[in-house]
Structure formats: structure tokens, C-alpha cells
Amino acid sequence: MIIKSRDPKDRDIAELDALLKQADAQGKRFLIERELRAMKAGIAGEEDCAYYINFYFGKSDNWCVIHDLRIEHQGSVAQIDHLLINRLFEIYVIESKNFSYEVAINDSGEFTLKSGSHSFGIPSPIEQNKRHIFLLEKFIADRGLTPSRLGIPIVPRYRSLILMSPKSVISRPDRKTFDTDMVIKADTLRTKIDHNVDKINPLQGLAIMGNMSKIKTVTEFAEALRSYHSSTAIINPSIK
Q1: How far apart are CA 128 and CA 188, in angstroms?
Q2: What is the domain range of residue 178?
Q3: Which residue intervals define the domain NERD in the entry (predicted)?
Q4: Which long-range contacts (CB under 8 A, 24 or more apart) does 59-65 make?
């Protein structure tokens, strides 16, 4: 069930286009053009990921879907690309990246993009999503948004996923050195979530079935979370 669709980015792009027309310094034009390229690439990546999420989970009676959730808490902001919430109150926090070339992850978890003979480092999406989860978890707990079961508040379980373009090539370290299992291609999302379910043993399965919430309960929680969404446009202040 889709609780919130993706926000249109037309306003952000129009603002950047206007800034580009007004910019007279070459350096500033370069910054604005780079921001525009990054934004358009990000939009394409989010659209691809949203397609797979909506295809598999958008009409499900066991899942709630939230796209483009921006929350503010105690002076910090989390811009979350996608949330998937099921009846077990597992919350998949999903970061989408539109890297259609080689992505190398080293033993320390550092990310490098490779295009031809050029390589450059980027901030770790894994660490970025950890910060999103940290803020989201605190936000939900501080506001008491989760329902109770037998008088005890439900404690959600948070799972991180980084969705890459299906066209990307991912080089990874050994799993024992640095675990990158949460970094997957967008078209394998359903397989990844099914695999998580398959790893549950029968005894765990029986206990889990007893802890399932009604979809109405999950929907009410997701709607409450959506009500805190802030749609403030995000433009890099350094280019204004």
C-alpha cells in the first residue's frame, strides 16, 4: 500500500535553471551545472527504485510504502528516499543511488566510482543510511509513534538497503572483512527481502506470526509518520 508517492522535483530544477541564467561567474556556473546533473541523476535513480518498490509492494496488504520522507529532529535533517514497513514492524530504510558505472568498495567500507581511467571517492551511502536510521529511530521513539501490543510499545526493527542501478558494476571486499550485503541492485530488491524471510527458522516463524500487526495498525503508523514530512526544497546554499 502506497502511503506517500515521490515528491515532484520540478521546483528544485526550475530554481537551479533560474540561478544558472543569472550566474555570470564561470566558477558559479560550473557549480550550478554540477548540481543540476547530480539532481537529475538522483531523480532518475529514485524513479527506477520507486518502480521496483511499487511493482512488488505498492498493492500489497502486508506492506506500507513511503517515498521521499524528509524529517527534522533536534536540529538535524534526514532525507529518506524510500521506506518499506511490514506487519512485523520491520522498517526498511532505502537509499537509492544512480551509479551506472563501476562502484568499488574497499576493506574499510570506502566507496570509489570509476569511469574509464578516472576514479574519485564519494561519501559512503552505507554510513549515510546509518545516520538516516539513527535519526528516524530517535524521531519515532521521542514522539511515541509506534502502537502498543498488550500495553507494551512495539519496537521497530530497522534494516538498511542501498539500491544501485541495475547497470552498475559493484566490486566488493570479502564479506568477513567488510559486510556489503545491504548494497544491492534495484532489480533484486524482492529477492533480497524474500531471502531475509527464508533465513527465519520454523520456531522463529511461529513466534513472528504471533507478533504480526493488522495492516490497519501499520497504515495508521505510516500515515502518522507521513504527517511530519517537510517538503522544503533542498538547494545547496553554496551555489546561491
Answers
A1: 21
A2: 2-239
A3: 41-159
A4: 59/1, 60/1, 61/1, 61/215, 62/86, 62/87, 62/215, 63/1, 63/87, 64/1, 64/3, 64/215, 64/218, 64/219, 64/221, 64/222, 65/1, 65/2, 65/3, 65/4
Structural contact between residues 56 and 182, judged by C-beta atoms closer than 8 angstroms = no
Number of folded domains in the chain?
1
Main-chain dihedrals φ then ψ at residue 6, nearest 5 degrees: -65, 145
CB neighbours (10 Å) of residue 32?
22
| pLDDT-wise least confident of 12-16, 50-54, 154-158, 190-194 | 12-16
Tell me the HSE value of 1 on the side-chain side, using a 13 A CA sphere.
Answer: 17
**pLDDT, tens only, 13-65:** 666 666 666 666 665 665 566 566 655 665 565 678 899 999 999 999 999 99
Select from 217, 212, 230 the least CA-distant residue to 64. Answer: 217
